[in-house]
Each structure stands twice: as structure tokens, then as C-alpha cells.
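Action item from last meeting closed. Structure (598 res):
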């Protein structure tokens, strides 16, 4: 072969590589020359299907590097859309993260945090929840004529003063249709174990019964020994009766706990209590397909908030034993199947091209999750830490995938910092609504970034809170191409094994169990995404410059905060019998979904 032929062949071999380099740039230039491509899409009123998984690790999905758990439907979304690689949750546990997602604001602004160690809402029968003066994207889209629905987990409160006031119900926040659980999945739901609050309640009641029983025996012995006057003999009987009643109450309370938080609601009525493991997946898939079918003329917003992959990993028989990673892997693969069914419903109703689909997780995988000795939580890939671990990447870096056929470029990856809070302004503006002007918003419109009109995120700083405490700050220093992470506090977890707080459900936010760093820990995530090697003034010449600039940003941020009532503190986060949802005689609380008779 002559040299000209060799050059031609080499050029031919390099063509795909060169095209991969210049086509995205050409697309960006074309969109930039177009009259505000992203702006023109505002008010285009697409349908929205927002998919959020519970406790999914970013390393559990094929398109983010997993090679042993099968997630073909999620991987398909990434191939056909835009994948974000630095997508960040506003909190590393459920309730505050979801509040931030729906409102586009740090959870501290709405009071959806605690100062007492109660990281989430602890029951469906507490009075705390997302305040009604907060504006969700569902509220705005409802005002814009969208049909709005949520299927699955809520975990943002239910009632305030009595059992049916529904002040925190999804309907109070813009969702016309609701089918799912207002709380979350717990070990009580499948009877495989007891939740921590169930254990504490039972221990307390058992201890009270034991003390009263011992008291009755002591009084009886004293009477028999002649040490107790006859008139006091009745005390022993009353103590024994109280002990028996308390013991019986402990047994009843234990049974009630299995029903108290483990139930399904259809709109504002309890429809199944307790929920049945074999029902949840098919019922929710069917309800999602039905919502799409009823509203296919559009526009609609459907938020599918999966009960997967939170413990106790409710998995149908069809998927048990299929994965290489035990029950957790089975649960992930079933969730991916559900994603496929929802995408299939969009295709079947002919609305896929008019629908923006978004996929994410509320935070990172739960490293402490176990059944006995078996680890049953997610994998966060190369990132340190997990659920509940404050600012470590493993707890807050989550999947972020957008698909909108014909609008968003297929196969594009975005390596800029983005946030779950960005969904609020993105969805609102595409729907033709106006973002609120009477409050601080922390989310940013993602469309220019997704389209390639702009190359950089609008987030220069992102704050990483643990409850009400600021643990870490991320600074995207664009001029230098650096992504700094400053940690003021970190949880004192065990580095061996999964690297978790083995003696707790999740790591704490405040001492003891938290290390304070002065000077703070500094990492450059662009070079060290695993946060393995903290930088020092000796190893990083810009150390003090970065720390001082971040401290200035923190001060500016804190000036935007206003005092609010913390919804996860005090009596607002304590179980109240008069708020307990129940679909039958209290405390039996038993019923089956009339649309799924058993």
C-alpha cells in the first residue's frame, strides 16, 4: 500500500474519533448562533416523567460503570439522552433531599431538617412535614393546567392536627393524583425484623410491665411477711393488673407498628393496610401506565418515587434469585424492569417524543443496610461514604439522566456540577410557569447545559448540609478548571469493610461521632474524586486562598437564610395516636385495595 493510501486509510480510521470531537463543538456553536435555543424551549409544555429511586448507589447502574447488575432500561435512557456525572443531592437522607428536590431550595430554608438527630420524619403519624407555604414545581404546573400525579413514596408528612386534615399530603402540594405510601418502607413492613422505633417502643413497654410486675410481687411478699397493712393489700392487685395490661399493650402495640407506617393510600384514603409485598410492584406499574393513558392528551407531570431499593427490599417472586448480588441486586433489577414498563407505556400511548424523562436517586447507597450478616445496601462506586454521611461524595453524588427525543442530544455527557434542586426551575420554565420571586431559589435551569448552549454550570458553590450543620462546600473554580471540596466536619466512621457507622442506623451530624477540622479538609475532586488524599498548605499552594474564598461564600450564603420552624424537631416528629392513618377499627387497621381484591 502506497503512502497516500496509508494516509487515506489512517484518516478513515480516525474519522469517528474526529467526529466525536468536532460534532459536539459544532452542535454547541450552532445552538449558540440560534436565537437563544434554550430560551425558545421555555413554555414548550412537554410532559414530564420524573423517576426517583430510594437509596440507590450511583455504582449500581450499568451506564455508571456497574458490570454485574443488569439495568438495560436505565442504560437505554442514558444512550438516548444526556447523562450527568456530577449530579448532587441536597442531603444524604430521604426527607430533606426530597424537600429540596420539590422546592428547588436547600432543606434548611423550609425547616425540613433537625437539630436533634432526627434526620428524617419518623412516622406517618407525626405533625411535621413540608410547610404549605412552600411552593413545589407540582403546584406551579397544576396552575399551568398540567395533570399532576405522584406514585410511590412521599415521606414529607401527612397530617397536622387530626387524622384527616392532610395538611402535608401530596394534594396540598400540587399533586392531584397520589397512589403510594406517605411514609417509607421499614423492616416492619414485611415482618422480617423490627424498625428501630418499633424496638424502642417494645422495650419501653416491656420494661414498664416488668417493673410493675416486680412491684406487685414485692407488695405480695411484704403482705405475706406481715410488713404491709391489710388496707394496702389492694396495691399489689392493682400493680399486677397494670403490669398485665401493659404487657398486653406491648403485644398490641407491636402488632400495630407493623400496620402504622406500612400502608398504601389512593389519593386521600388508606387503600391497603398493611401493604402486601407481592402487590406493590404490579400495582404501581399499573397505576403509572393508567395515569399516562388517562392524560395522554397532555400535558402531564408524573413523579414516580420508587419504594425500591430501600430496606426491606420488597421484591416479587419473579425477580428473586436472578441477580449476582443477592436480594439487593434482585431489587435493583426489578426496579429497572419497572422503568422499562413506564417507558413502554409512553411508547404505547404515542407520547414518548413529547415527554421529558428524568432518572435519579434521592441520595447515595446505604452502607449500613444489613439482614443479619448479609450486606443489603448499595454501592457508590469510587466515591467515599454513603447514605447519611454528610458531605462525602458517596452520600450525595447520584445518577442524573435526561431524555427528550428530538430535543436533547443522544449520548451526551455533562461533567459540570448540577443539583437535584435544578429540576424545579427547569421543569417550571419548560412548562411555561414563573419561578417564585418572593423567596430564594437554589436550583438553576439545566436546559442550556443539557443542550450544550453553555459549557459551564451556573453553580459556582454548592453547600452540603447535615441536618442544620454545614459540613462541606463545593467550589467550581472555572478559571482554573478545579473543583474544590472543603470539609469542616466529617462523620467518624469505620474505614474497614464498607466503611460505615456500624453502631448506628446512619452516621450522626453533630458530636460525638463527628470530627471537626481546623483547618478544614481540602480535596480537588477534578483530580481526586474519591477524596482519598486531603491537600495541605505544603502540597497545594492555593490552599489558604481556596479556604478563604469558600469561607466568604459561606458568609454570603448564610446572609440569605431566615429563621424557620424545624419540622423534624421536638413534638413535630413524635408519633401521635390521633394522627395515625387507619382504614378500619383502631388499632386493627386492616383493609385491602378495592381495585386489587385479595
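Sequence:
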Amino acid at each position: 500500500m502506497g503512502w497516500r493510501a496509508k494516509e487515506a486509510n489512517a484518516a478513515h480510521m480516525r474519522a469517528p474519533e474526529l467526529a466525536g470531537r468536532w460534532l459536539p463543538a459544532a452542535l454547541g456553536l450552532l445552538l449558540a448562533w440560534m436565537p437563544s435555543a434554550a430560551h425558545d424551549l421555555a413554555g414548550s409544555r412537554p410532559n414530564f416523567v420524573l423517576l426517583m429511586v430510594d437509596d440507590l448507589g450511583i455504582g449500581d447502574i450499568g451506564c455508571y460503570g456497574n458490570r454485574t447488575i443488569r439495568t438495560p432500561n436505565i442504560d437505554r435512557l442514558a444512550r438516548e439522552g444526556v447523562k450527568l456525572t456530577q449530579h448532587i443531592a441536597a442531603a444524604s437522607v430521604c426527607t430533606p433531599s426530597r424537600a429540596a428536590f420539590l422546592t428547588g431550595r436547600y432543606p434548611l430554608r423550609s425547616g425540613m431538617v433537625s437539630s436533634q438527630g432526627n434526620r428524617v420524619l419518623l412516622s406517618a403519624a407525626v405533625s411535621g412535614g413540608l410547610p404549605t407555604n412552600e411552593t413545589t414545581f407540582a403546584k406551579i404546573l397544576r396552575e399551568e393546567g398540567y395533570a399532576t400525579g405522584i406514585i410511590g413514596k412521599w415521606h414529607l408528612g401527612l397530617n397536622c392536627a387530626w387524622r384527616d386534615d392532610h395538611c402535608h399530603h401530596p394534594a396540598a402540594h400540587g399533586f392531584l393524583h397520589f397512589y403510594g405510601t406517605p411514609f417509607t418502607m421499614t423492616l416492619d413492613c414485611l415482618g422480617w425484623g423490627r424498625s428501630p422505633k418499633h424496638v424502642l417502643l417494645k422495650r419501653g413497654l416491656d420494661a414498664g410491665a416488668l417493673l410493675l410486675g416486680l412491684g406487685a410481687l414485692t407488695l405480695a411478699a411484704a403482705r405475706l411477711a406481715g410488713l404491709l397493712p391489710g388496707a394496702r393489700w389492694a396495691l399489689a392487685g392493682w400493680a399486677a393488673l397494670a403490669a398485665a395490661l401493659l404487657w398486653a399493650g406491648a403485644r398490641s402495640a407491636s402488632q400495630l407498628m407493623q400496620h402504622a407506617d406500612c400502608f398504601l393510600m389512593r389519593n386521600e384514603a388508606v387503600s391497603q393496610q398493611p401493604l402486601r409485598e407481592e402487590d406493590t410492584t404490579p400495582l404501581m406499574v399499573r397505576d403509572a401506565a393508567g395515569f399516562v393513558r388517562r392524560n395522554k392528551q397532555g400535558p402531564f407531570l408524573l413523579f414516580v418515587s420508587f419504594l425500591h431499593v430501600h430496606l426491606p427490599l420488597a421484591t416479587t417472586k419473579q425477580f428473586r434469585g436472578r441477580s449476582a448480588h443477592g436480594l439487593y441486586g434482585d431489587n435493583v433489577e426489578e426496579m429497572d424492569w419497572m422503568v422499562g414498563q413506564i417507558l413502554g407505556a409512553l411508547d404505547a400511548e404515542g407520547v414518548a417524543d413529547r415527554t421529558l424523562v428524568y432518572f435519579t436517586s434521592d441520595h447515595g447507597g446505604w452502607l449500613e443496610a444489613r439482614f443479619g450478616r448479609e450486606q443489603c445496601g448499595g454501592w457508590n462506586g469510587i466515591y467515599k461514604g454513603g447514605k447519611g454521611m454528610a458531605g462525602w461524595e458517596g452520600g450525595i453524588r447520584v445518577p442524573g439522566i435526561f431524555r427528550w427525543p428530538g430535543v436533547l442530544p443522544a449520548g451526551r455527557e455533562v461533567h459540570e456540577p448540577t443539583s437535584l434542586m435544578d429540576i424545579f426551575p427547569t421543569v417550571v420554565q419548560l412548562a411555561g410557569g414563573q419561578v417564585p420571586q418572593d423567596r430564594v431559589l437554589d436550583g438553576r435551569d439545566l436546559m442550556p447545559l443539557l443542550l450544550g448552549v453553555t459549557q459551564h454550570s451556573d453553580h459556582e458553590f454548592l453547600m452540603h448540609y447535615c441536618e442544620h450543620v454545614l459540613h462541606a462546600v463545593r467550589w467550581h473554580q472555572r478559571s482554573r478548571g478545579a473543583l474544590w471540596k472543603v470539609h469542616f466536619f466529617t462523620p467518624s466512621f469505620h474505614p474497614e469493610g464498607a466503611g460505615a457507622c456500624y453502631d448506628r442506623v446512619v452516621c450522626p451530624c453533630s458530636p460525638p461521632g463527628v470530627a471537626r477540622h481546623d483547618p478544614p479538609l481540602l480535596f480537588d475532586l477534578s483530580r481526586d474524586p474519591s477524596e482519598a488524599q486531603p491537600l495541605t498548605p505544603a502540597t497545594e499552594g492555593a490552599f489558604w486562598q481556596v479556604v478563604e474564598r469558600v469561607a466568604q461564600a459561606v458568609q454570603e450564603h448564610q446572609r440569605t437564610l431566615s429563621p424557620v420552624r424545624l419540622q423534624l424537631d421536638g413534638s413535630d416528629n413524635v408519633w401521635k395516636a390521633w394522627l395515625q392513618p387507619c382504614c378500619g377499627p383502631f388499632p386493627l387497621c386492616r383493609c385491602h385495595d378495592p381495585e386489587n381484591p385479595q
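Note appended to the action item: The chain is about 35% helix and 15% strand.
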